[in-house]
């Protein structure tokens, strides 16, 4: 067992034991961290591995959430089935966007604009779907349960925590495997220099499509979780570009293209945001916007001093790999 | 000797500028051929047309008897043509080994097999001790070697080398010449190279094709070509000593 494995096992053990010791508030923060770690991991497949910048990942969170929530709301069909519908819908959407962009050679910032455009007009579109609640929102009945109903994703906060922990671990394992496979090599080659990648026989269209499809499918799962955890969905919130930015900040701060970066980034950012709120409350400095200013300052410092993210530097100090 | 690559009447224009004009030539199987000529003669355009980066406006390209004009670069690579870039394009964020593995995966079934193959090629090109380094840390001569290693890793039947000697010191140039001679002799690899370094052209090439303003103005053995008045006039100059 290498040092990296040992550290990983220790961390996992701590995370599994966490709910037993944590307050309800700490548990909700931890669940949120895992949510962003998972969604960040999904986004990282596209940008970190394959170099395709998506600024519209809220699209997949939203469509995934609405697909599963709609199925449950109207037909009483639980998340276990909804997740498949969510994945199918998001994969189709991702493939359509990818096809349009890659077939017609749209890349870089123009590709990013295309992803924003799709997220934005889906947001506006959902405002007009009365069947899913329109702008007034879709609400899933909240039942206070202490038991665990995993198939329907109804249960105690600790259940949601463990579901998210399981998903995050699965995503980590999947990404670790992908990165060491042919796909990982080809994606990174495309990210570093697409023309050279093509000259080495890589069908760049096909491999970029695969990255988009995997990323959108994973993000769809995050959306399903979101729907059943928060129980209410508003197009204005879930499809908003600020949600896309929230998702991508974790991997960027943690370390683009690394395996542990998205997890670390999500933890740092979420704890930071909550910590700043607490700190300012304690100091009595509760002016509107002051939290955002602090948050922005910290991000600025990280980007200035750790341009490759926190994880690559930390990994060197710990003596472990990616 | 039969032709491995055959260009017939290839033309390519960029907004009215004829970069390559009705060029026809053959690259004999198993030989080393050179494409020379002054800057802007259309040599790299010729390479890019062969490699599938540009579609020719007219003409045909046959590789191993099969037409390949209009194929995508990855398909041309799949057909068995490897190429290097004049302006090197390393995968800067990856290690030297990972760079070569990407190429080796074209023919190898698994990552571990590709790593083995990549290590062999790197040894041959003198990159063995640099396998773990990021490609961005390499010097220019090493980056040129990396270009060659990556292209070789795809197991080409024809290797297109675009100015891999440029910027090398004479001793480094001689080492590189030796590497290509060895690969050509041991594996029968056919090579077409674009080169300004006449030292390398004279040492390596069995056949030379001279381009000027997109047209072929001379062809023959190196010795014949350097005595050709038209070549002396436009490219090598009267006092050429090679």
Instruction: Kindly report the greatest chain-chain contact and the residue count on each side.
Output: A-B, 21 and 28 residues
Radius of gyration of chain A: 20 Å
- Mind describing the biggest β-sheet of chain B? 6 strands, mixed
How many angstroms separate the termini of chain A? 16 Å
Short summary of the structure?
The complex is a heterodimer of chains A (322) and B (242). Chain A has 322 residues and is mainly α.
Description of the molecule:
The complex is a heterodimer of chains A (322) and B (242). By secondary structure, chain A is mainly α. Chain A has one domain (3-12, 23-318): ABC transporter involved in vitamin B12 uptake, BtuC, CATH 1.10.3470. Chain A is built from 14 helices and four strands. Chain A has helices at residues 3-21, 24-49, 58-75, 79-103, 109-126, 157-180, 182-192, 194-199, 204-230, 235-238, 241-254, 261-283, 290-305, 310-318; strands spanning 138-139, 148-149, 154-155, 232-233. In chain A, α2 packs across α12. The radius of gyration of chain A is 20 Å and the shape is globular. Chain A starts with a helix and ends with a helix. By secondary structure, chain B is an alpha/beta fold. Chain B has two domains: 3-80 and 156-236, P-loop containing nucleotide triphosphate hydrolases (Rossmann fold), CATH 3.40.50.300; 94-153, no CATH class. Chain B is 38% helix and 26% strand. Chain B is built from nine helices and ten strands. In chain B, the strands form two sheets. Chain B has a six-stranded mixed sheet with strand order 6-7-8-3-9-10, with helices on both faces. In chain B, a hairpin with a 2-residue loop joins β9 (207-212) and β10 (215-220). Chain B is globular and about 50 Å long.
């Amino acid at each position: 067992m290498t040092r990296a494995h040992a550290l990983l096992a220790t961390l996992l053990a701590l995370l599994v034991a966490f709910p037993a010791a944590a307050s309800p508030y700490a548990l909700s923060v931890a669940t949120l961290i895992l949510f962003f770690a998972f969604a960040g991991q999904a986004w990282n497949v596209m940008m970190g591995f394959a170099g395709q910048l998506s600024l519209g990942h809220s699209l997949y969170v939203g469509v995934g959430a609405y697909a599963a929530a709609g199925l449950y709301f109207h037909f009483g069909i639980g998340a276990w089935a909804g997740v498949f519908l969510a994945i199918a819908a998001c994969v189709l959407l991702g493939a359509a966007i990818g096809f349009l962009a890659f077939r017609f050679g749209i890349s870089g910032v123009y590709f990013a604009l295309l992803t924003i455009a799709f997220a934005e007009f889906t947001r506006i579109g959902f405002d007009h779907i009365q069947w899913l609640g329109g702008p007034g929102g879709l609400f899933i009945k909240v039942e206070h349960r202490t038991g665990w109903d995993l198939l329907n994703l109804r249960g105690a906060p600790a259940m949601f925590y463990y579901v998210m922990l399981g998903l995050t671990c699965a995503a980590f394992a999947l990404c670790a495997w992908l990165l060491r496979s042919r796909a990982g090599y080809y994606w990174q080659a495309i990210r570093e220099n697409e023309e050279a990648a093509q000259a080495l026989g890589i069908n760049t269209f096909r491999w970029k499509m695969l990255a988009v499809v995997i990323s959108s499918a994973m993000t769809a799962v995050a959306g399903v979780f979101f729907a059943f955890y928060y129980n209410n969905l508003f197009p204005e919130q879930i499809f908003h570009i600020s949600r896309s930015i929230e998702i991508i900040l974790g991997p960027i701060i943690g370390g683009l293209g690394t395996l542990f970066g998205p997890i670390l980034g999500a933890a740092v950012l979420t704890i930071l945001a909550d910590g700043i709120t607490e700190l300012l409350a304690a100091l009595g400095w509760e002016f509107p916007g002051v939290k955002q200013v602090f948050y922005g300052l910290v991000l600025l410092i990280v980007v200035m001093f750790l341009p490759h993210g926190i994880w690559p530097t930390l990994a060197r100090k710990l003596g472990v790999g990616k | 000797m039969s032709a491995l690559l055959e260009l017939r009447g290839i033309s390519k224009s960029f907004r009215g500028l004829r970069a390559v004009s009705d060029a026809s030539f053959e690259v004999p199987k198993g030989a080393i051929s050179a494409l020379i000529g002054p800057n802007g003669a259309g040599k790299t355009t010729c390479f890019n047309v062969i490699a599938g980066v540009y579609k020719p406006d007219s003409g045909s390209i046959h590789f191993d008897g099969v037409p390949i004009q209009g194929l995508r670069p990855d398909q041309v690579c799949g057909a068995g043509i490897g190429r290097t870039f004049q302006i090197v394009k390393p995968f800067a964020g990856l290690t030297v080994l990972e760079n070569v593995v990407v190429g080796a995966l074209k023919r190898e079934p698994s990552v571990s097999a590709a790593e083995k193959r990549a290590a062999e090629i790197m040894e041959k090109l003198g990159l063995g001790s640099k396998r773990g380094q990021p490609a961005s840390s390499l010097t220019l001569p090493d980056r040129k070697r990396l270009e060659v290693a990556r292209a070789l890793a795809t197991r080409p039947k024809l290797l297109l080398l675009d100015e891999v000697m440029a910027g090398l010191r004479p001793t480094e140039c001689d080492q590189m010449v030796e590497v290509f001679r060895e690969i050509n002799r041991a594996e029968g690899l056919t090579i077409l190279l674009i080169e300004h370094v006449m030292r390398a052209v004279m040492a390596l090439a069995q056949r030379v094709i001279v381009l000027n303003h997109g047209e072929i103005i001379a062809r023959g053995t190196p010795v014949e070509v350097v005595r050709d008045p038209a070549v002396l006039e436009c490219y090598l100059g009267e006092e050429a000593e090679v």
